[in-house]
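To illustrate this point, we now present one chain and its tokenised fold:
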Amino acid sequence: MDDRGGGPAVTWDDIASAARRLEGVAHRTPVHTSRTFDALTGAKAFFKCENFQRMGAFKFRGAYNALSRLGPEEARRGVVAFSSGNHAQAVALAGRLLGIPAAIVMPADAPAVKVAATKGYGAEVIFYDRAAGQDREPFAAGIAAERGATLIPPFDHPHVIAGQGTAARELLEETGPLDWLFVCCGGGGLLSGCAVAARHLSPGIKVVGVEPAAGDDAARSFRTRTLQRVEDPRTIADGARTQSLGAYTFPLVLENVHDFLTVTDEELVGAMRFLWERMKLVVEPTGALATAGVLSGRLDTRGARVGVILSGGNVDLGAAAKLFA
């Protein structure tokens, strides 16, 4: 791992190392299939169910890998993270398991279920006002500096990225080679880590990032090869409301991702409905991005073996009921 800009931020060896640290700690989540989905798409699809991961999302992988590498003095001083929800819970749980104090900066309008879970894991929650234009990153960095704590960003960190890549590693170890891998994209941590793992284990695989149409910064960045931003994207996929890819994730995406798709919130609801009703899988809007990408038919996957990462299942049931109304 080279975090100084002298080479790839994350390599296959980093992902293999993360897998060793996560062994016996993270769940090896199941891989599900659906004959109905295959009939709809003409593909043979394999769903990696990270909604069954500890704290309900893939984020636990990266958070635990990053926190487990802190030295004794760093661990004593604790960590600070900023997140709309799943990274918050992941850092909180990893901190509890490792005995590391965790403070989480969350938006005041974060889903109540995610705030409650974060506090339930024992973390301190500090709110910021996104609606008033308050920037979470400098706010969190200021708190970390005051406390002498380590800042653990939600995606743009080599150890976090390597941990997330273990999801694709497990999927491909179970399924064997795949033709396509569809992965949701917010800040690109899961996508870039999974892309590195997938290309190592299944040469020739086409990795596709999927993000909300309202927050298409990554797709535009990928196509223009210039980092693009989007301000306060309005989408039900709260985990993908990031403003841009990161300094680590952007070059990894450019190097390892084959294509990008965007899907509307309406398409996301349709994908969620399919997963809930037909596959009995409770998946949050962000977690359904990759499924929506395959269902959109914008890429021809007929006759192909297709991997789909279901990234999380931390759903606000009250809000979900309104989506399905």
In short: The beta strands are 31-32, 44-49, 79-82, 102-107, 124-128, 150-151, 180-184, 206-212, 259-263, 305-310.
